[in-house]
């Protein structure tokens, strides 16, 4: 039953991301992020969304390291990049900085991870 719920949640997430991207032709904005945080179902989708972004930034970090390019952020070894982690890092960073409601969460997350885990 738990796996079925996860599959339905994933499918719902994909539909929502498609709708967001179709409507805005870009990534999730700060305004959308704040709206999603208010809804329990959308908040779960947000966890998946931000965890995926965090993984993407981590993969970019691995590439940078292999190319001897400065890393974007330097997390402690074996830090799992989860939706809970990325949303906590985002919330703290957003609270202490000013952003436009149209700023994209993906860009804010890069700077939030860099701030939380500097090299």
Task: Describe the structure in your own words.
By secondary structure, the protein is mostly helical. It contains 5 helices and no strands. It has one domain. It has helices at 2-24, 30-38, 40-66, 83-95, 105-116. The chain is globular. It starts with a helix and ends with a helix. Mean pLDDT is 83; it is low at 5-14 and 16-24.
Number of helices: 5
Instruction: Please give the domain count.
Output: 1
C-alpha geometry = globular
Low-confidence stretches: 5-14, 16-24
Gyration radius, to the nearest Å? Answer: 15 Å
Helix content: over 70%
- Please, what is the oligomeric state? single chain
Strand content: under 5%
Q: Pairing-aware structural class of the strands and helices?
A: mainly alpha
Please outline the major beta sheet.
Answer: none
Summarize model confidence as the mean pLDDT: 83
Instruction: Count all strands and give the number.
Output: 0
Quote the distance from N terminus to C terminus.
Answer: 42 Å
- What's the SSE pattern? HHHHH
């Amino acid at each position: 039953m738990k796996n079925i719920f996860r599959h339905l949640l994933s499918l719902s997430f994909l539909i929502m991301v498609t709708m967001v991207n179709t409507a805005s032709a870009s990534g999730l904005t700060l305004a959308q992020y704040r709206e999603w945080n208010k809804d329990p179902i959308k908040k779960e989708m947000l966890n998946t969304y931000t965890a995926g972004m965090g993984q993407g930034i981590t993969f970019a970090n691995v590439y940078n390291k292999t190319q001897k390019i400065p890393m974007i952020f330097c997390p402690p070894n074996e830090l799992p990049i989860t939706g809970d982690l990325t949303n906590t890092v985002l919330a703290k960073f957003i609270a202490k900085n000013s952003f436009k409601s149209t700023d994209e969460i993906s860009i804010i997350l890069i700077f939030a991870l860099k701030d939380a885990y500097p090299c």
